[in-house]
Amino acid sequence: MKLDESQSFFLQKFKDHTENFDVDFLILTGSAGTGKTELIKKCVEYLKINNFGHQCLAFTGRAASVLRSRGLENAKTIDSWLYRLNNKDTYEKELNPYDNFIFFIDESSMISNSAIIFDEKEPELDFKLDEIMWSTFRHINCKNILFIFVGDKNQLPPLKHDYCPALNEEYLTNRYGLSGKSYSLKTMHRQTSESNIPKLAENFISFDNEIIRAIPSIEKIEKDVQIIENSEVVDIFFDLYFENKHDVKIITATNKKADYYNFLIKEKLSTGKSKFFTPYQIPKDNLEPQKGDILQIFANSSGIFDFPMFNGQFLEVLELGSVSETILKKGNRIFDNIPFITQQLTVDTISDSGERAGNPQTIEISIDHLINSYILTKQEYEYFDKKDKGMLYKIKDYISKIDSKRVYFNKLYNPVLTRYGYAITGHKAQGGGWKNIIIDFSGFNDDMGHLPPSWIYTAITRAKSNLFVANYPIEEKNE
Question: Within this chain, do residues 175 and 277 fall inside the same structural domain, yes or no?
Fold first, then answer.
């Protein structure tokens, strides 16, 4: 790939900084499609030639898998790398030979470093950036260490922030006493040359850390997008789906809305009831998984499957398998009577473009998690799904007492939690890109008619070529 002016400038500065290590970190920012990953590859090629140690990291497993698919073979998640640092062999085999070590941390806009304090329950702590810094300098004794934080600061910030600490030069300097410099890529490569998406996205870039912002009227954006009616969303989806099912995604504000579209789409894709389920286990035949379905991973237990899978990744169903049902016990509460249903599926992970990884494997998925938003109340669903306290946790605890302590390594009781992957939330779309994007704006705006600009920016910039917008707030609510 021929580098543009801003890419060439950063690459030269990167070489200069790695010659004398005059800074501790570099921040590389750029909008989606400006070639950040390709530039990382160029930097890694330079490091290999000069025998520098390096490690590519990403906040999510999905982002790490994207880096590997783009040729950065040693890409890992931040959490898996931090876990490896506790292994004595890691330093001896991977770090000891090098005087100089460079970390590339992609999707750094997602890295949190804060806490939420509550009056009546335990605080929610997420000091991931502190953990990275503390663990690195504690375990790595290389002469020189350089961090390259890579991301788009206009995308969604971490959940506990209204800005991105890992892409903030002042924050890194004041908190850790480190010195660094920031660089930005300017030229858009992802979108086609005739696309107006980058121009449109500029309307939703926030300034001065503003959390909400009045949005442009529909008249001001209609020349850059295709405005559609709510009733057209599914029909347009299928027009694009049947051209290439991997080229289109619907983006929504909430999982509930995404499931609404997923279930409508499943109804049209369904070929009828399979032999695997009894009538009471799934309320409608069209909700059953079928060959060719696309799923998105929400959670999975690492280390119990043949090939690694990461949250946020997409799976394609290759074959259907047996269904298992477990009920923890009969009790006085209605929740105790919810069956615990899983199904074996042969799947392969796929890229955003639909390319299979070539590692098919049989996994156990939770049918409850897949469809319970369709059949359960919010209270029932939260009881089933609540981490460390819900029904899944109680089943594991119960089975471990009467069966084996190794229940946590049993696929049946550690199912992969998935949802259908035709419609996804903005948070789950982050880091991805598809040719055609349909955004349903319902639920985005607050009572004042404002939208979180980073949310809208992230959703819009997932589109490579064509953008369709439904339920855009009317002009009266934009004042």
Answer: no
**Same-domain pairing of 298 and 241:** yes
CA 133 to chain centre: 23
pLDDT tens readout for residues 355-399 = 999 999 999 999 988 987 776 666 666 666 666 667 677 777 766
Same domain, 175 and 215: no
Q: Are residues 213 and 312 part of one domain?
A: yes
Taking each helix axis from N to C terminus, what angle separates 255-269 and 233-241, rounded to the nearest 10 degrees?
60
Instruction: Give SS3 for 260.
Output: helix
User: 178, 177, 201: which is closest to 188 by C-alpha?
Assistant: 201
* Residue 412 contacts residue 364 (beta carbons within 8 Å): yes
Q: Are 61 and 308 a contacting pair, CB within 8 Å?
A: yes
Q: What's the pLDDT tens digit per position in 297-309?
A: 998 887 788 888 8
Q: What are phi and psi of 346, to 5 degrees?
A: -90, 125
Same domain, 272 and 360: yes
How do residues 250-266 score in pLDDT, each as one tens digit?
999 888 899 999 999 99
Total domains, the chain: 2
